[in-house]
Hints:
Elements: H1 7-15, E1 30-39, H2 40-52, E2 59-62, E3 86-89, E4 96-98, E5 109-115, H3 121-126, H4 132-135, E6 142-148, E7 158-166, H5 168-179, E8 190-191, E9 218-223, H6 227-235, E10 240-243, E11 249-254
Antiparallel strand pairs: 1-5, 1-10, 1-11, 2-5, 3-4, 3-10, 6-7, 7-9, 8-9
Amino acid sequence: MDRIESPDELRRQVRAGAFRRPTTGHAPGFLQGNLAILPQAFAADFLAFCAKNPKPCPLLGVSEPGDPRLPALAEDLDIRTDVPGYRVFRNGGEPERVGDLRALWREDLVTFVLGCSFSFEESLARARIPVRHIAAGRNVPMYVTNLETHRAGPFGGPMVVSMRAFAPADAIRAVVLSERQPLAHGAPVHFGDPAAIGIRDLADPEFGDPPVMAPGDVPVFWACGVTPQVAIRGARPDLAITHEPGHMLVTDRPAEGAGIGL
């Protein structure tokens, strides 16, 4: 499958309905973002949740209520159409999957974009560290853990992590390289035994695809921007919208050198 290099070209294809798959490996070198769209009545508490949990929720941008644009992330961006897959939650129920949000959009909706670990994968590739799920054409595996987030108002619950498996020497280099990108979750939150963070079966992730591992590999776990989806379901707003896990918003902001802050 050909890699799309340009973030604006990727967004154009998403907008046209021609790209409906995980964005891992695409638009290398640019920040990708997790999505949380909430009614304005929940926005202050969710912003506090992000501030208290910067590892799973590194904040890239926040919209004005009812505004589908985030020009600080990309001039042409329309949050209603530019994500390859959306999840719609009503009162904390099971998600409905939709291709765009134009029919659902409301004037009280506030968009939060949070950093994604896909953003540091290009630095691993340049260091010749194999990223096994990309080579296999799969989504990254994601797991619900026993690591608790810090509660803010109605938002709380367990942290979700993504996992990448490496040979031990490559795992150490991956830790160092990812630590340089705090807006892409920074350094891992765990290394080694999955059971230590409450993962019962590495082959059965709650989100994404089963992992690709070679003999001798060490699993490495990063905080994941799917964490807010668990928190949002617990908060039970009448309407909330997120990305389909692995189907990220691709921005025009360079990944490397991006500091902490908006």
